[in-house]
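pinned: reference chain
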Amino acid sequence: MKYALINNQRQEAKPGLSAKCPGCEAPMVAKCGEVKIWHWSHLGKLKCDLQWENETEWHRNWKGLFPEHWQEVFHQDEKGNKHIADVKTDQGWVLEFQHSSLKPEERRSRNNFYPKLAWVVDGTRRKKDQKQFMDTLRKGRKVVPNMNVFYISPDENTLLTEWADSNAPVFIDFGPGPSLWWFLPKSPNGKREFVGAYSRVEFVNIHLGGPTQAQDFEAFLKDFNGLVAKYYSRLRGR
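pinned: its C-alpha cells
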C-alpha cells in the first residue's frame, strides 16, 4: 500500500514510521528495504481488500500519473467487504492496474462491484505474451481505415483468452511505446474479436481532463464501440 494515515493525513512509507490503515484502521508498518518498492504493510492479518496485489514499480508508476487524492480509494459493499481502487477519477471511473495473475471469479467480482471500471494489464509479466500478441495481429485483419484496429482470433493467445470474459474495458501495456492495446468489447456474436492501438498519453489525459480530451471516457467508449460494430457488420456482409 502506498499511503497510510499519520495524524489523519495520508503519508507515503518512510523508514521508522508507523501509521494506521485508512480502510480498516489497523496498525501499519513502513517497509523500506532495498529490493521491494517502499510500502506500508498491515501488522497481522489483512482486514481490507484480500485480493489487492502487492505493488510493483510498474504498478506504482501508473498510479503516479494521477493526483494523489485519486489513488487508493476505499469502497465498502453492503456486506462490509472492502475494495481498494488503484485510482478513482473525478468522472467516477475506477482504473485498476493489474500485474499479477488474477482469478476469474475475482475479476468478475470487481467488474460487478465497480459500475465504471477500466483495467490496465501488464503485458510484460510473461515473456511469451507479447510475441503471441504480435503473432495474433499478423494473422488478423486491419478493419478501420487510418487506425490500428484489427479483427483477430484470440483463441490461441493466452493473455487475451484470460481477459476475454471481462465486461469492462481492458487495455494491455507491453512496455515503453506510445500505445496501449485495447481489447475491445464483445462483438454481436458474444466474442471479443477486435484489438486497437490507443494512445498512452490520451488514456491518461482523457481522465485528467488534459488538452487532448475531446469528450469524457464513457462517451468515447460508446462512440468507438459503435464504429467497431459498423465494421463488424461489414465483415459479416450485412
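why pinned: The chain has two domains: 1-48, 54-235. Helices lie at 57-63, 104-113, 127-139, 158-163, 200-208, 217-235.
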